[in-house]
Write a structure and sequence with these properties.
globular; 36% strand; alpha+beta; 9 strands; Protein Transport Mog1p, Chain A; nine-stranded antiparallel β-sheet
Length: 173
């Protein structure tokens, strides 16, 4: 009798029993998968990582920042986050991977994408800040986010995505 309400709760919030049973990988493993390539004109900062306790679970993440010198720098951030222990992760990830189509406004656009022919996600662009973001899901638990400020060429974001070993990310336990 007690199992049914728990299972119903997991279905309602979009979770599955298998996600809650997985453990997040150490952030040092995620840091190793971040792009190490240089971008002309940008300084690559040392990668950072953490494991944090957040509402409804734990989150492991790693990120690296690229920045141009000057008063108004151009910035690109690459982040890999592991949501394996997050109770609501399945519902959140499902929303990111199920959204289809394209929306356009005066401020920018949002469209669904398939990265490297395999990983579903979303690309957004902001005309006012001349920036964008590509966000996608790997192995139903990792969210890869590459975002920019004052970098109008979304191709730069995809070049950094190409420098991430997504196959290795997919194989992490």
């Amino acid at each position: 009798m007690r199992k049914a309400p728990l299972l119903l709760l997991m279905v309602v919030v979009g979770g599955t029993p298998t996600i809650a049973q997985q453990k997040v990988v150490d952030s040092s493993k995620l840091r190793q998968l971040l792009p190490s390539k240089d971008l002309p004109g940008f300084k690559r900062h040392p990668p950072m990582g953490s494991i944090d306790t957040i509402p409804f679970g734990r989150l492991s993440s790693a990120e690296v920042k690229y920045e141009t010198p000057g008063e108004v720098p151009r910035i690109i951030q690459v982040r890999i986050a592991d949501f394996a222990e997050h109770m609501y992760a399945a519902g959140l990830l499902l929303g990111l991977t199920r959204e289809e189509g394209r929306q356009e406004t005066q401020e920018g656009y949002s469209k669904s994408v398939v990265v490297k022919g395999k990983y579903r996600g979303k690309e957004t662009g902001n005309r006012g800040m001349s920036g964008g973001q590509v966000e996608f899901v790997v192995a139903n638990r990792f969210v890869v986010t590459v975002q920019s400020t004052r970098v109008p060429d979304v191709g730069v974001l995809y070049s950094l995505i190409d420098a991430i070993d997504l196959a290795a990310l997919e194989k992490l336990p």
